[in-house]
Amino acid sequence: GVKDYKLTYYTPEYEVKDSDILAAFRVTPQPGVPPEEAGAAVAAESSTGTWTTVWT
């Protein structure tokens, strides 16, 4: 099955560390899409989402 992005990329309790690199994105969710899900989808794409080939 397909998991919601927010189940793996949304961690509101995360505390920022001095070593973290922060980026800001403006997101406008489509009608019916929760803001948390839209933001988590952006997080997925900006880490190892569909535009990145991952080699293991």
TrEMBL record:
Residues 46-56 have a biased composition (Polar residues). It is found in: Plastid, Chloroplast. It catalyses: D-ribulose 1,5-bisphosphate + O2 = 2-phosphoglycolate + (2R)-3-phosphoglycerate + 2 H(+); 2 (2R)-3-phosphoglycerate + 2 H(+) = D-ribulose 1,5-bisphosphate + CO2 + H2O. One of its GO terms (biological process) is photorespiration. The keyword Oxidoreductase applies. It comes from the Eukaryota. GO terms for cellular component: chloroplast. GO terms for molecular function: monooxygenase activity; ribulose-bisphosphate carboxylase activity. Its EC number is 4.1.1.39. InterPro entries: RuBisCO, RuBisCO_lsu_fd_N, RuBisCO_lsu_N_sf. Residues 35-45 have a biased composition (Low complexity). It holds the Pfam family RuBisCO_large_N. Its main location: plastid. The keyword Lyase applies. Belongs to the RuBisCO large chain family. Type I subfamily. This is Ribulose bisphosphate carboxylase large chain. It comes from Ficus glumosa. The gene is matK.
